[in-house]
Amino acid sequence: MRLIANATALFFPATDARLSLMTDALDFAIGAVLQQHIESTVEHLGFFSRMLSATEKTYSTFDRELLSIYLSVKHFRYILEGREVVIYTDHKPLVFAFMREHDNSTPRQIKYLELISQFTTDIRYIAGRDNVVADTFSRISQINLLNLNDFSGLVEDQFSDHELKSLMGSGTGLEITPMYFASSEKTTLL
């Protein structure tokens, strides 16, 4: 659990830190993480993910990956303005998007590339297996954290958690309310 907490911790932006925007797109969703690099440490500044619309799901891989960068840049615009940023993608053709003529580009692609170019033209390739955080956020809808029809596992974990037991009635101001669910034989703590 501590690893998840550390991986999702957010930091305040440092004005002199290098920035990187890691993006990813799937057939149904996009995701990104904005990071700052301070010496040898990487700190997360923010996460972004969104499901694709029915129309966006029909886009080519190039267009979905470009959309991921475009929407991520728009989302983090307030941090990116006036800063140097490197964008990482696992889609190699996007690395060369600013190096080629756009005679065959669609108006949508040109619009996306123009906005992105206001912030950076430094787009680099990263293997999908190394783009873990952005990949995870683009898959957020696939993560099934809790089966809402069966609370028995949750109840067992709550009643065996020593930290939770110590907080109950400890006078910390934390209010823990027992609640009965029809799908469970025991009381769940909320």
From TrEMBL:
Domain Reverse transcriptase RNase H-like: 17-119
Alphabetically ordered keywords of this record: Endonuclease, Hydrolase, Nuclease, Nucleotidyltransferase, RNA-directed DNA polymerase, Transferase
Pfam families hit by this protein: RT_RNaseH
Gene3D superfamilies in alphabetical order: 3.10.20.370
GO molecular function terms listed in the Swiss-Prot or TrEMBL record: endonuclease activity; hydrolase activity; RNA-directed DNA polymerase activity
PANTHER family associated with the record: PROTEIN CBG26694, PROTEIN NYNRIN-LIKE
Name this polypeptide is given: Retrovirus-related Pol polyprotein from transposon opus
Gene, per the UniProt record: pol_3622
